[in-house]
Task: inverse folding
């Protein structure tokens, strides 16, 4: 039985996730392939939910996002998303009010999200996008570059500490889109971090 594909774009805010997702979506649409985009809850509710939120709020955001990704991955051959679990955990760990018990609970959720029992129906690939461009002001995301870097460092820490495999895409937006399309087209499984440029 063929498993559906989940591409989880993991990066700090304003790192270029939406640009890559929209570029990939345009190609998939032109190829008449069936896919779905699961938006980050911050884009759905158009609310500032970054450092000013509590770790408890971030946990619920993660659960909401995860439910949407799971539902999409059961219906569509390809799901593109930005909040499967790792990114939300990074924001939980960098929020202004951090409760250790909530962070620990969230880490357990990350393990659950990547367990065989919940990913048996889909191939999940995490695409890490490093900070390469200036922050683009949109009224929602914070403009603090130090905070952006702190989230980015925390994402890498989570990948390492939770032993979550990922691929990194770098270069121009066009190069990043091509690298993701190459991954989608080959759908190769791997067990360690790789870099694709």
Result:
């Amino acid at each position: 039985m063929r498993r559906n594909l989940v591409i989880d774009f993991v990066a700090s805010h304003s790192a270029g996730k939406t640009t890559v997702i929209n570029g990939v979506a345009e190609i998939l649409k032109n190829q008449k392939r069936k896919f779905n985009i699961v938006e980050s809850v911050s884009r759905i509710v158009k609310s500032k939910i970054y450092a000013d939120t509590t770790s408890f709020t971030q946990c619920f955001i993660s659960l909401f996002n995860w439910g949407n990704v799971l539902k999409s991955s059961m219906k569509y051959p390809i799901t593109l998303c930005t909040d499967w679990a790792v990114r939300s955990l990074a924001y939980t760990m960098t929020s202004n009010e951090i409760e250790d018990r909530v962070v620990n609970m969230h880490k357990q959720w990350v393990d659950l999200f990547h367990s065989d029992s919940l990913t048996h129906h889909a191939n999940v690939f995490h695409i890490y996008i490093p900070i390469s461009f200036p922050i683009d002001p949109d009224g929602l995301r914070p403009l603090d570059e130090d905070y952006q870097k702190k989230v980015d460092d925390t994402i890498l820490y989570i990948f390492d500490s939770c032993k979550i495999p990922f691929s990194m895409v770098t270069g121009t937006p066009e190069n990043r889109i091509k690298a993701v399309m190459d991954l989608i087209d080959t759908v190769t499984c791997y067990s360690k971090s790789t870099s694709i440029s």
